[in-house]
Prior knowledge:
Elements: H1 6-11, H2 24-33, H3 47-59, H4 63-76, H5 83-96, H6 100-114, H7 118-133, H8 137-150, H9 157-170, H10 174-187, H11 192-207, H12 211-224, H13 234-247, H14 251-259, H15 268-279, H16 292-296, H17 303-313, H18 317-328, H19 348-358, H20 371-388, H21 393-402, H22 404-412, H23 419-425, H24 429-448
Helix pairs in contact: 3-4, 3-5, 4-5, 5-6, 5-7, 6-7, 7-8, 8-9, 9-10, 9-11, 10-11, 11-12, 12-13, 13-14, 13-15, 17-20, 18-24, 19-20, 20-21, 21-22, 21-24
Amino acid sequence: xxxxxxxxxxxxxxxTPIVCQRSDSALRQIREQDVFSKGGDIPTLAAxxxxxxxxxxxxxxxFPEARAHWMKVLEVYPADTGVPxxxxxxxxxxxxERQYDKSVEWFERLTKDHLNTKDGREGLAFKGASYxxxxxxxxxxxxxxxxxxxxxxxxxxxxxxxxxIDAYREAGMYDEADxxxxxxxxxxxxxxxxxxxxxxxxxxxIFRERWPQAAAAADxxxxxxxxxxxxxxxDEVRYLKGLALEKAGRKQDAxxxxxxxxxxxxxxxxxLASERLAKGGAKMHIPAPLTSKQIADSPVMYLTDLLRESKxxxxxxxxxxxxxxxxxxFKPGAxxxxxxxxxxxxxxxxxxxYKDAAGYPNLQPDDLYRPSVNIALGAEYxxxxxxxxxGMYEAIAASxxxxxxxxxxxxxRSKPKDPxxxxxxxxxxxxxxxxxxxxxxxxxxxxxYTEDLQRK
Length: 456
């Protein structure tokens, strides 16, 4: 739902100023210095040092340790200019831990006294996102409307409009949602935000199973929109129109629409459309042969570990390779700004949930750089997600990147439970792009290799 919030939700961009990459040696150093890591309390330091250490812990997803330092700032330095940052950090950390009641409580403390700061403005937007995750969609809509009213030129004004549309939709208030589509189109004429608003209307009509209106919304979007830098594409809109026509009983029109989408290994919706053509008895588009670059960019690495761990858990090793390619380009020492480590870019707080089942009960953050450890933990996590989402690979990929609760919400608002409809509902730009790339990677690996990773 939080369209332009995607990058801050995924990559902590809203925690400012934050060093993009905190070294592992810095983390080890402060963990040794902080007494609480040995069961005690932390000493009082300068406010700036508490903030710095909190950011280091937070960027490595060690949230209780981060909160201990933010709380020190609030307790010892209540007049410090870093107080809004500490309040925002505490609220966001609870949001990351899915303790949304607590995140709302702390965002309210932040916005009550510091709404004139950038952290306060950010906090107002994230309070709306917390309400969404609590299922309080009307409260979310009102919060986003408050942001729009108070900060008409704010950093998140476009996402506030788009989130208002989806919040009213999820609250079942379709007329209000449609009214906000019109307001957003008027406010952001000829911009990607206009395209995203029209796409929101199309998704809403699909969800409501109003097939003629959905086809009309797709036509309007195709005629008037520029898809550059938007959350959708012409291939996606055509696919959704084809689905609407098919559901409306207009089979030949649906096949013609699917047939207008070119099939290639770079087009996720083209692949889906080709499958629909085949199921409908129409001529299936055959993609062009893979290029030498596509083949070279899709190697099989860590074969022994991949086969061992995937077979234990009945998952497709080609899907793990598709994720690995997208996450780290097969670099075991890779680390992201959000503290994700290794081949499958696992964050520590996720990894420790699966450490016992994977056979690593004494897991430490640096262990995630070891390929065998990372692959075992990643396979365990993917196996859990496969069960959680009924084997829908798109939902697994979305959850892997954007979080399980978000993926469940996108799946809940996908009607019918079609992979293409689900992908259209993914509400973070970063995560949607990730799903498309992983699924295209997976398609290439399936074209090249058997499930035993033997070249075809």
